[in-house]
Amino acid sequence: MTDRPILFSAAMIRALLTGRKTQTRRVLDVPPVTFDAVFCDDGIWYIGDATTGQREARLPVRYQPGDRLWVREAHAILPRTAYRMSIGTGTIAQREHPTDGYSAAVFREGFDRSGNPGWRPSIHLPRWASRLTLTVTDVRVQRLQDISEEDAQAEGCIKLKVTGRAAEFTGSQYLGLHWPSCRAWYRDLWDSLNVARGFGWDANPWVVAVTFAVAHRNIDSAEA
Question: CB-side exposure of 148: number of CA atoms within 13 Å?
C-alpha cells in the first residue's frame, strides 16, 4: 500500500464531494509499440503479443489496489479563526492544522471569496490540509476511447432530464452544454483538460483507469 497525492480540477472536486465520481483516468507515457494486448503480472503492467504472450514494453502504472490517494485542490491557508461564524454552516469547509494551533485551510470549491491571501493552486496543498481520501479498489489499463458508458458516468457525469422531451438524457452542465451520453460528456471534458498537452480524445492515448472509494476525511485522521 502506497500513499500518493492526486490533483483534480474544480469540476471533479465537485463530483467527488457529491459522491458522483468513483473513477479517474490518467495518461500513460507509452513508447511506440507493435502490439496492443495488455498484461498484468504481480501488479506490473505490460503491452505485448496476445498470441505468444511476448512482453514488448512495461507500462509506468503507479497505482495498485489498496493505495490511498490524498486529494489536492485549490485552497488558502488562513488563521483558524477566519470565517469562524461561517465554517460548517453552508459550503465553507475548514481543515485545521493538526499541531500548530493557529492555521487552517479553506477550499476554493463552493466558496466565493476574495481578499488576501489569495487562492493557492492545488499543487501546493499540504498533506495535513487535504479533506478527501481515495482508496484504490481497481486498476485497469486501456485506450481512452475504450471507456464504457457506465465508466463515463462513474467519472462524474450528472443525469439531467431534458425539459419537453420524453426521454431522459445523461449529461452535465459543465461548460453550459448538454450531451446525449455520458461518453460524449466525458470526451468533451477530457479534451478541455488534455488537448493542449497533446493527449486529446482523438489521439486515443493509453490510460490507467483507477476506481476508488471516497472518504470525506484527511488521510492521517483517526478514522482512516
Answer: 5
Q: Across the chain, how many H-helices and E-strands are there? A: 3, 13
Q: Report pLDDT for 4.
A: 96
Q: Is this prediction's pTM over 0.70?
A: yes
Which residues, in sequence order, are CB contacts of 152 under 8 Å at separation 6+? Answer: 181, 182, 183, 185, 186
Q: Which residues face 120 on adjacent strands?
A: 75
Domain ranges (residues) in the chain? 3-64+138-215
How far from 85 is each of 7, 106, 130, CA to CA, in Å? Answer: 30, 14, 22
pLDDT beneath 50, residues of the chain: 163-176
- The values of phi and psi at residue 200, to 5°, are -70, 175
**Which residues are bridge partners to 105 per DSSP?**
77, 95
- For the record, the C-alpha cell of 35 comes out as 502490439
